[in-house]
Amino acid sequence: MALGKRRGKRQQELWIAADAVARSPRHVFYEKLNRLLAQAEFDAWVEALCRPYYAAEGRRSIPPGVYFRMLLIGYFEGIDSQRGIAWRCADSLSLKEFLGYSLTERAPDHSSLTKIRQRLPLEVYQEVFQFVLQLVEKHKLLVAKEVGVDSTTLEANAAMKSIVRKDTGEDWQTYVTRLMQEEGLVDPDATPSAEELQRFDRKRKGKKVSNDEWESPADPQARIARMKDGRTRLAYKAEHVVDLRSEAILAAEVYTADEADTATLVPSLEQAQQNLDTTESGRFVEKAAADKGYHAIETLVACQELDLVGVKTYIPEPAGKRRWADKTEEEKAAVLNNRARTKRAYGKRLQRKRSELVERSFAHVCDTGGGRHSWLRGVENVRKRHLLLAAAHNLGLILRKLLGAGKPRAFWALWQLLRLFQNVLLTLRAILDTLRTAKLYLRACASPAQI
After folding, report:
1. What mean pLDDT do residues 164-186 have?
2. Which residues pair with 254 in a beta bridge?
3. Reported confidence tier of residue 144, pLDDT bands at 50, 70, 90
4. Of 108, 185, 194, 429, whose CB is crowded by the most CB atoms within 10 A?
5. pLDDT grade for 447, boundaries at 50, 70 and 90
6. 94-101 contact pairs (CB < 8 A, 24+)
7. 112-139 burial by CB neighbour count: b if 16+ within 10 A, else e?
8. Beta strands 214-215; 164-165: pairing state
9. Per-position DSSP letters for 258-305, written without gaps between them
10. What is the rounded distance in angstroms from the CA atom of residue 107 to the CA atom of residue 86?
11. pTM assigned to the model
């Protein structure tokens, strides 16, 4: 065989028949996902949902079913930006077929995704999430009796070096320069170097970067928070309510990063129950497990009063003595009952499942699903994006039941494992055939008369 050489610039074909274009085989994962959405009549449903937000006449927009499929692709392919999603869809023939575009049609641009996101309100994304949750219920994966709650930080699309003072509008460099001038370390007309500013800022007393004093002009709703790896960044807070039996996300709320866990637990549980009510399954959240950061007397009492049945909490109590002088009997009972439930073997088992499954949902949605860094600004835009990521996670649970894998990469790994198992079986069969042939040969050699 002769060595092939890559040709340089060449004249492209002016006309080529569609049947002559090299086609890649369909991706089984996305083909199954398309079939699942088609059986649920997702496209007709979402078009009726979005129709009030479009004009009756004019140029046709991107179909809502295509828009939401592109956001699902962002989760399944681990792409965090709209530009990356648009490029991936335009580059892959398999994904274009998943979106419903032919070879001659152009995939949507990232700017079109931005316009549609701005056009559709948050309620539409919430209803899409509830639609997927109803599919989870139809496939008999939903239990929702025991839930786990936890939160994580999402990096905002704003830099710490761009924050300014709320009272004066000064940035960090101007603010530190003014402090040095007030202490007489530099002349009023002099401008210290960046090294001098850092040295002074590192050693000055009372140093504090507070959300009450500083904000980002690029994203005023982003808050200063400490990330999981110890860095200080502008961020939001995502909170998941996860079914501890099926791993389905019942609620995926996004708050500002400075909101305490004790203040967001009850709203998240209420939203989870509202989402469950749309499935018409008659299920209620009865037990909620969370870490000790969620422990507060007011929160425990509010959980007991949720809906009709109340929610039993399994929240570890922080260390320290409790004083009951100014507490009512109801508050005292709520704390003591939660303490007793947490110390039982059942409560400890719930805590272990919460630590495993809720953190796993963050790993799927934020780390491998492209949701850790948000390229959008404003809590509402971040919430829209995160809701679709959580919906894609729930779709992955259904596909894991149908295909054995919840993401394309996992499906490919499973397929390779099956091929390896098949090769092992073929190898064992070949070895057995060889041993059987050798056994017959030895028998023939032992009795030549039978040849």
Report:
1. 80
2. 238
3. confident
4. 108
5. low
6. 94/24, 94/25, 94/26, 94/27, 94/30, 95/27, 95/30, 97/26, 97/30, 98/27, 98/30, 98/31, 98/33, 98/34, 98/69, 98/73, 99/66, 99/69, 99/70, 100/63, 100/65, 100/66, 101/66
7. bbeebbeebeeebbbebbbbbbbbbbee
8. antiparallel
9. TS-HHHHHHHHHHHHHHHHHHTTS-----EEE--GGG--HHHHHHHHT
10. 7
11. 0.83
Strands 146-155 and 214-215: unpaired
Question: Is residue 313 helix, strand or coil?
Answer: strand
d(CA 174, CA 164): 9
Angle at 38 between CA 35 and CA 42, to 5 degrees: 135
Q: For residue 321, count other CB atoms closer than 10 A to its CB.
A: 4
Q: Is 212 left (phi over 0), alpha (psi -120 to 50) or beta?
A: alpha
Give the pLDDT confidence of 116-139 residue by residue, as tens digits: 999 999 999 999 999 999 999 999
Read off the pLDDT of residues 83-100 as tens digits, 9 standing for 90 and up: 999 999 888 888 888 888
Instruction: List helix spans (H) across 369-407.
Output: 379-403
**To which residue do tokens 């091929």 refer?**
419
Q: CA 383 to CA 367: how far, in whole Å?
A: 17
Residues in the chain: 451
* pLDDT score for 451: 44
Contact predicate 237/254, CB 8 Å: yes
**DSSP structural state of residue 367:** I
pLDDT for position 417: 55
